[in-house]
Q: What sequence folds into this?
């Protein structure tokens, strides 16, 4: 090897990517060659300068990325399984008789679970509060809780030294269960109330999730629209979009969806809106998509906009 | 508890320790199978094991937190959607990095083609130097970074811009991520020899532009 050959190997030497014998030969050469020694010094200096400009993500950025990602994951379909994976999950595909046996067993388990759910069960403490089962009766007391599950908080305690008794102020909340068809106006009204409960996002997700499958009435349609426009929780907005899918051809719904596409802060929601809007291609939306192709910060959303434009046979640019 | 598991799942930690407890925690196979069966929480655990390295790679490549966020999002969403096709024929680390490097390469190529990421951009407040402002975003208190000459920063930026996207990627993985060329070849879908040639070309270009640094 001549000096130029060694000179060329200095970078690989610096990164420890030379074979042991080449490394030894290079070290031996550098010891006696001022030019290569200087070159090695330059390589080190460059590496140090590069190290000094290394960027590391700050914790808030990592947290933000994770949150956005999990929102998008929540909005997307579960991962597609390959055929092999599908067969390993459902081996009965290959053996129909065993499959029937498993099906019967599963049905039995469901039946058992149904029966078990009929058996009443009471715990003494739930959610940090005293729970008085319906049979509770405080002997010698004036308190007899009404039937049904009662959650009680003690609000006041008043001793009566004369009688030796104590008066305790209880605040009770009773839980009632009502059931009925979604066609029942009373059930719908309760669900609509739950869908507007600002304090409980989980309840809103569940309620909108049920209502979305029965968007027939004007009130339900309006509740879905309101949830899309104003609900602070992206999961609720996603459920609302699902419910509004069947109205996606109507002008006011398309307008609300287009507004969400432009202004919703959650990219999962924006992606879902694109999917719904592209099911009913409409020339009036071309401008919205074209603008988003230029303004949207998220690569994936931008990509979906480009796909939507292609789907609508429209160009990406505004000329 | 979750933090302990996440910490244990970190590939760096795993590489640094032969500890049996860590090995047990590193049982990614179960986590991956759970994700393949639709467990989103398990997916989050996988993400947490790799995402800081992914974000660091994307940030150093693009010098932009915003672009890095997009790469992060796109790469992990692709991973989520395609994890059903992951056959355990390579490590998950290699698989996820293949996705990430492809997304990064696409971003770098788009930049080259559109040439829409100049160092200086026009803003309502006047011209803004993206490289300098990226530097200002960093935390204070690192004296080495503070004394780094702005001119030098620009020269290094220009030198890196002179690399092809693939050279840039190999250089990034070797210099900043500390990966061996064998692994880089595996991740980028080339041979170790091709990765070596790529690193060689990249460093030669860097040295020709920055040769007077010493």
A:
């Amino acid at each position: 090897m001549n000096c130029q050959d060694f000179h060329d190997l200095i970078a690989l030497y610096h990164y420890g990517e030379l074979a042991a014998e080449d490394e030894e030969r290079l070290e031996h050469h550098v010891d006696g060659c001022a030019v290569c020694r200087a070159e090695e010094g330059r390589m080190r200096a460059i590496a140090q300068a590069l190290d000094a400009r290394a960027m590391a993500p700050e914790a808030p950025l990592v947290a933000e990325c994770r949150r956005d990602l999990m929102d998008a994951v929540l909005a997307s379909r579960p991962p597609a399984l390959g055929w092999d994976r599908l067969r390993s999950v459902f081996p009965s595909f290959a053996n129909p008789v065993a499959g029937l046996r498993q099906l019967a067993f599963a049905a039995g388990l469901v039946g058992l679970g149904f029966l078990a759910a009929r058996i009443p069960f009471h715990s003494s403490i739930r959610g940090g509060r005293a729970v008085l089962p319906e049979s509770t009766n405080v002997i010698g007391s004036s308190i007899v809780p009404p039937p049904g599950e009662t959650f009680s908080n003690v609000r006041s305690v008043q001793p009566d030294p004369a009688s030796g008794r104590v008066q305790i102020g209880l605040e009770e909340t009773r839980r009632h269960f009502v059931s009925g068809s979604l066609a029942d106006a009373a059930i719908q009204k309760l669900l609509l109330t739950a869908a507007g409960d600002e304090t409980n996002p989980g309840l809103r997700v569940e309620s909108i999730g049920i209502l979305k499958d029965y968007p027939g009435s004007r009130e339900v349609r309006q509740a879905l629209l309101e949830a899309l426009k104003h609900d602070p929780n992206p999961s609720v907005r996603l459920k609302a979009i699902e419910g509004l899918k069947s109205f996606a051809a109507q002008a006011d719904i398309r307008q609300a969806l287009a507004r969400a596409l432009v202004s919703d802060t959650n990219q999962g929601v924006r992606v879902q809106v694109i999917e719904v809007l592209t099911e009913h291609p409409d020339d009036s939306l071309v401008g919205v998509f074209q603008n988003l192709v230029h303004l949207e910060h998220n690569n994936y959303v931008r990509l979906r906009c480009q796909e939507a434009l292609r789907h609508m046979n429209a160009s990406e640019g505004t000329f | 508890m979750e933090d302990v598991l996440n910490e244990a799942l970190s590939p760096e930690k795993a590489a640094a320790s032969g500890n049996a407890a860590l090995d047990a925690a590193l049982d990614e196979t179960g986590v991956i199978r759970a994700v393949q069966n639709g467990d989103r929480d398990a997916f989050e655990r996988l993400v947490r094991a790799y995402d800081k390295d992914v974000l660091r790679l994307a940030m150093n490549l693009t010098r932009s937190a915003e672009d890095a966020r997009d790469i992060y999002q796109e790469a992990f969403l692709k991973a989520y959607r395609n994890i059903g096709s992951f056959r355990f024929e390579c490590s998950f680390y290699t698989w996820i990095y293949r996705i990430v490097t492809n997304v990064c390469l696409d971003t770098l190529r788009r930049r080259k083609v559109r040439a829409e990421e100049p160092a200086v951009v026009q803003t309502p407040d006047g011209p803004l130097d993206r490289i300098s402002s990226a530097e200002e975003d960093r935390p204070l208190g690192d004296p080495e970074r503070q004394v780094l000459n702005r001119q030098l920063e620009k020269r290094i930026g220009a030198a890196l811009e002179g690399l092809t996207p693939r050279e840039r990627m190999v250089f990034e993985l070797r210099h900043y991520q500390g990966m061996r060329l064998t692994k880089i070849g595996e991740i980028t879908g080339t041979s170790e020899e091709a990765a070596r040639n790529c690193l060689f070309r990249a460093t030669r270009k860097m040295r020709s532009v920055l040769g007077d640094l010493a």
Remarks:
- The first helix of chain B runs from residue 2 to 9.
- The CA atoms of residues 123 and 129 of chain B lie 10 Å apart.
- The first strand of chain B starts at residue 120 and ends at 123.
- Confidence is low (pLDDT under 50) at residues 1-11, 13-22, 116-121, 129-141 of chain B.
